[in-house]
Amino acid sequence: MTIQVGPATEEISVANVLYEFARLADEGTVEEIEDLLAPDMVWEMTGTVWRGRAEVVSGLASLRELGYVGPGANTRHIVTNQQVTVEGEQATSVSRFLLVGCSAQAEIRAVGGYQDRLRRVDDRWLMAHRIVQD
C-alpha cells in the first residue's frame, strides 16, 4: 500500500503541531514545548517580543511561574477556526483561541487569535513565529 503525501496531509501536519503546542501549554513541560520551536523562533504578545528559542522558552516558563498556564493552572487552550496554508517549506496558520479555566464551573479567561508561521526543518514542522492577538 502506498500512502501519498499531498497538500491536505501537510496542512494537517502543521495543524497538529499547533494543537500539540496548545496541549503542552496546559499539561506538558517547557522542554517538550521547546522541541516544537525553531532556533530563531519569535513570539509577539501584548507589547512583548521574545527572540530566539531560549528567550521564548524562558518567557513561557515565566508565565507558568506566575500560574497563568501549565500543569496546576487548571486551564485549557482551545484552538478553533484554524486556517492553514502550506507553500513548500513554509506554512502559515490563522486561528482563534479560548483560554478556559477548569474549576468547579468553567470560565473563559481569555479570547484571542494566533498568527503562526512554521518552517519545515529536517522533515518536521517547527514554529518559527507566533503573534498572539487580543
Tags for this entry?
single chain, 134 residues, alpha+beta, Nuclear Transport Factor 2, Chain: A, six-stranded mixed beta sheet, 29% helix, 47% strand, globular
Uncertain spans, ≥5 residues at pLDDT below 50? none
Give the oligomeric state of the chains in this entry, treating copies of one chain as homo and distinct chains as hetero. Answer: single chain
The gross shape turns out to be globular
CATH topology: Nuclear Transport Factor 2, Chain: A
Taking all Cα atoms into account, the compactness measure Rg is: 15 Å
Counting DSSP E segments of at least 2 residues, the number of strands comes to: 6
What does this structure look like?
- 29% of the residues lie in helices and 47% in strands.
- By secondary structure, it is an alpha+beta fold.
- The protein has a single domain (7-133), classed as Nuclear Transport Factor 2, Chain: A (Roll), CATH 3.10.450.50.
- A six-stranded mixed β-sheet has the order 2-1-6-5-4-3.
- A hairpin with a 2-residue loop joins strand 5 (107-121) and strand 6.
- The radius of gyration is 15 Å and the shape is globular.
- The chain starts with 6 loop residues before the first helix and ends with a strand.
